[in-house]
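User: Show me a protein chain along with its predicted structure.
Assistant: Here is one chain, sequence first, then structure tokens.
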Amino acid sequence: MNHSIHSADRATHLKIVVVALVAGIGIAALGISARNNADFTQTAQTNQVIKAGKPVAITSSGTSTVR
């Protein structure tokens, strides 16, 4: 048994890649699920409609003119 990754065979490299891939997917899924649960349980989201007012042109003198 050789304990060097440099001299490991193809099957060992494949096992390491598969374990790393599964671990990465698991950590990403855990992070996404934790973020989504925190958003829905801690904050109440309300939809607000913002209506546009009259058009305004800003002049260099600092006063606004309604057109």
